Structure formats: structure tokens, C-alpha cells
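This follows on from our talk about sequence and fold. Go ahead and set the record down below:
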Amino acid sequence: MIEGRPAQLRPQSRPQGGLPPHDVGAEEAVIAALLLDEDAYPRVLPILEVSDFFREQNGWCYEAAIALADRGDAVTLPTLAHELERQGRLDAAGGEAYLVEIAGKYFTAVGVEAHARIVARDALYRRLIEVAGRIAQTAYQGGPDAARVLAEAEQLLLGVRSSERAGEFKSLRQLLEQFLEDPGEAPGSLEQSVRSGFMDLDTVLGGFKRGDLVVLAARTGVGKTALLLNFARNAAIGQRAAVAFFSLEMSGDQLAMRLLSAEADVPATRLRLGQHRDDEERRIMHAIGVLSESALYIDDSAVLTVPEIRAKCRRLQADRGLDLVVVDYLQLVHGAGRADTRANEVSGITRSLKELARELHVPVIAAAQLSRAVESRTPHIPMLSDLRESGSIEQDSDVVMFIYREDVYKTAEQWQDEHPDRPGGQHPSGLAQIIIAKHRNGPTDTVTVRFRDRTASFQDLVLREPSPDFD
């Protein structure tokens, strides 16, 4: 009998003599089950990795069993001993006598999945202990950049979570039963999706789904930031959602002024110069009260990496909750490491944002710039091929939307010249199209909304007509 091995399987063990969490008995029970029952291997494989074993020779035995199963060979005592011998590890593992001993001690494969989960759980605890030590070392080293140290610590913890094994299969019946048991999403509910606040858009998309990456793309000056602010405002006020807005291009003061302008229906220039009238003053004070009650949080750091965005979102989620993340805009975000090309860096960023959406169970909306190709053709309607710098933006996104405003490209005179068959026809001033070019889980479509230039905001066409502009 090898020293330190328990006489019988314990459902739980505590560290002895300063050793980290482990249960050698559970490890041996798993190896014995592999030798005794050919059905044990597929039940254990989704739960355990070789590195999860505390006792190295048990890990060798498991690795040898995996090699046998991958080749289609039966996992028996003789074949496992032969594989260990072939790998040069049989003697170090305790020889064939060790395999005979554990097969005799644990003479059944019953409970193998429970034993595997004990081994995996203790391995997780050991990884946490290791990461805690590395975090402590980083904190001792310190330095002037505390935010960097905190981001590194959170990244280390995230690595532990990411290393957890995938979940087990769910039968279609289970999934359908969950559907039947779910009473559906009540109006205003945040359980499944966050509403955009635009009726036609929400009809097509069903709101922004949790775990989805949504990309909103347009050329400069068409209104990406304005529409993102509308989405954030509508979620924060209309659904009382907690929203994180990362602005890498505009300051928080500028965004607050834009939100106030749209909410109060007062041009931002008049707000900045303090030239609003008495009736506008009342609207401004009411708008400040409404906006101040919202859970909309703005980060206007000029330089951000995805790990920093993830760290800040995790803190906000822990402190105040989180329902929606907005990033303005994608091409200004820096990758976590070095990339040989900018396209590869953008690919890494989009994959990381998608992972962030899945991990935090929130929709992530990221603005993106379109290439100049859209300017060189007529009409200037954006296409998926116009996404700048990386095809992975399209690949990783669940939804891709474009903003198209014909009045940006054509004056009233030009429009009339191109439409002589419409004498007296109305120039599409103040109208914008939101083109849903990709929708992974639903239809594509085009939604028309109103753009109000004086407050740089978007509105539903049918909710209300804009009030007359004031001179």
C-alpha cells in the first residue's frame, strides 16, 4: 500500500499537514471504475482533465486510459499497464501491483461521476489557491498603476473560471420542458432581453438578447454615438436597466450634454451657452431629474483594453448589477496582447467582446466604423463587406446593424434632380434607416426612424412629431 493513501473512499477531505485540497481516494475510485466498466470513460471525460489529479501517478493512469480509449482499445488492467510501460511510467506509477490493488479496493464503478466531481472540485480549489498567491505577489510588487494591478488580478480569476469544464448535454425534452415552464417575458422584464426602445426594431430583434454581441456600424457623422445613447437611455429609463457605457472618443461631459439635450428637447448649443428660455428651463430641470434617477454609468477612458472593460464590468455587476454594455467604438479598443496585424487584433477584440457577453450574460453593443468603400458607390447603402479591418466582426457578431441616412449624401436639389418623376416629392430629410444586415437568430429587415438633428437623437416615427425648431 502506497504511503498516504486512505484506507477507504471519503466523500470529502480536508487538507492535512498544510497540503492543498485533494482526495486521493476519489482519484483511485475513478481509475478503478475505468478498469472495471467500459461505460465509465465517457461519463468521466466531460468532468475531468489529467491536470485535475493531485497524485501524479493517478494522473498518468488517467492519461494512459485516455490514450487507449482514443485508439479504440479497451481500458483493462493489462492494457493500461502496457500503455504505462510504453510511456515509460509503469514503475513510477507503482507497477501493475498498484493497478491490481486499487481495482480490488474499489470493486465497483457505481458513483464514478460523483467521484470525478470531487476530484474536479478539489482541483478548482487548488487553482484558486495558486491564483491567490500570484495575486498576492502582484500586490506586494505594487507600483504606481493600481488599476493595472487590479485588472491583472481579475484577469487571473477569470482564467480560473474559463478553465472550468463545459456543461453536460441537455436533452431536447429538457429544453422544451423549460420553455413550457417559462411563463414568458413580462413587459419591461429584463430576464431575456433589453429593449432598444424603438418599436419596429424591437419587433424584428425581440430586443437585445443576453449573451449576444451586437455591432452598430456606420460612416463618420451619420449618428452611431447618438443611436448608442438612445439605446442606453431607453434601457436605463424605460426598463430601469443598469447600463455600462464605454466612450473612447467623447468625454463623459459631452455625452451627458447630448443626453440632456435629447431628453429636454433643447439644442445642445443652447445648453452649452446658457441661452435657453424659461419654458426650456422647466424641461431641462425635469430631464435632469429623469436622467439622474437612471442606472447609466459612463466610462470615458481614452485608452482601454478588453480585459480592462471586462474588469470594470465585473465590478459594476458585483456592486450595482449590469444589464447592458455599450462600447463606442470597437476600432478604438486595444487588444490584450500583441498582434501581427491590426485585422488580427480586431479579430481578438470581437471574440473577447462576444465572450464577455456570454460570461456576464448581458448584451454587448459595439459601434464600428465602415470602410471608405461605401462612399465610392451609388447608392451609399452599407453592406457587410464594408465592415472595416476585419471579417471577424461579422463572424463573431450575433446582430449587425447599419445606419443609412440619404440626406447625408444628397441635398434637396440633388434628390429632386435624381427623382424627376416625383415633382414636389419630399426630400428624406430627418429620416434614417436602421438596416439589420445580419441576425443570427431571426430575420433581417430595414427599420425607418426619425433623426432629429437639433438634438442629435433618434425617435420612433409614430410616437410623436418633433416640436418646431426655435430660432
Q: What stands out?
A: The longest strand covers residues 431-439. Residues 112-141 form the longest helix (30 residues).
